[in-house]
Amino acid sequence: MGTAALPIETPFALPGALPSWPASDGGFATGVIDLGGLEVRQVTTFAKVWSTTHGGEDGQGATFFEPAPVPAGFSVLGHYAQPNNRPLFGRVLVARDASSGTTTGGASPFLAPPLDFTLVWSSPDDAASFWLPIAPEGYKAVGVLVTATKEKPALDEVRCVRADFTDACEAEEAVWSSGDKDGGFSAVTLRPAVRGIDARGVHAGTFLAQSNNGLAASTSVVACLKNTSSASYTSSAMPDLAQVNALLAAYAPQVYLHPDESYFPSSVPWFFDTGALLYDKGNPTNPTPVARDGSNLPRGGGNDGAYWLDLPADKEQRERVGPLTVALGRIGEHVGDWEHVTLRVSNFDGGLVRAYFSQHSAGEWVDASRLEYMDGGNNSNRPVAYASRHGHAFYPRAGTVLQGDARLGVGIRNDCARGSVMDAAAGRCEVVSAEYLGSGVVVEPPWLGFDREWGPREEYDLGREINRVARFLPRSARERLAKLVNKLLVGEGPTGPKMHGNWRNDEKES
């Protein structure tokens, strides 16, 4: 019997073809991005250099690639690496000096060949060697190279980048480790150390090679790219409003609620229409009904405690608007909570790259190659998300996820299955903010400026609540559960969306 093919041996493509994005004066989905004279393209096809089927994720090893073919006039900045337990789905940036190598005012070219290479690690059978480019003064290496021999690469096989076009990077995801017996080699993917709407770091798709023998390529000598362009986001590579709406039509997720779900999501206007009240710290006994568009909500001020939203005082209305009990008694009540799915697309071609699933106070990024998609037709590129029963944390697949100590079976249970559908298709969703497009392009609804708490303040006797639902657990298990609940579920009412770190910064990993 033959050996089963590894997942990485099959390149991933989205289920459907990419649509033709609306034309604009900007640079979104044009295939090239100008970082201020340094032009970059993404390469998504590769030639295998070396593969191992031992260790790594699921014990299936990893494979190391060089980008191929490289567009004419562009230079390799580093190679690509990926675990073998998923379809091949990578993107590495290549670059060219848009000034054609000329210098102005004595400035150096944007790209330069390395002076030499340092051997980071060789496999025991000498079938693979990992090389760190030694950058000239004033330049940085952006990745490492892999060869199938012990011979150094030619100096013209890679380019280093002028330091002002680079930014600090950090490890993102483990790719593979050899173990201590083979010199303690490991490979990790890289990402910009500073991320968010205002950050300038650019993800190059390269990886970092390290070993325990003193020949380690560290994040102090390997960098990511940096956007030095003075152009606005709109005129560089970000989508305009028509393109944003086209992206929503192409990728808006379909959310499955659990068949036994009791508490359903609502629109903000429904929440206000059904009786949400605005409380004033200076006059807490006389709450005010909220206008349908939130126009009477105080804006700004952060979460200063001066105001908060609560459910209607009438018991019947209060039960209609939000749950008073969940699996852990009152703990975990999240009226007015903001769970979300974030879609990350490539500015080079508009392709879906990853999705982030928020899960209480944490979450996870999932590559497009590992997502579940809707079936057929124009919806074939739309991913599926599952909202957990009662808690509404999002997951990429159906099933039960235990957040906590799975070994001891202690944690927060999240049950996901296909029940009713919350469809975020075009026409059922609304763009409420796009600050990068400039003032007036998207008029934000008044409620978006309410920073304070969107749900009731609850005071819990945490020990009593935990003991009530977990009284048969050993004391140590109850203590672990209490810590977990306190971390994930207990706190003041959820604040407005602009107060969350994901509004302007990168998502928080679990």
TrEMBL record:
Domain of life: Eukaryota
InterPro entries: Vps62
Pfam families: Vps62 (PF06101)
Protein's name according to its UniProt entry: Uncharacterized protein
Species this protein is from: Eleusine coracana subsp. coracana
Gene name linked to the record: ga29431
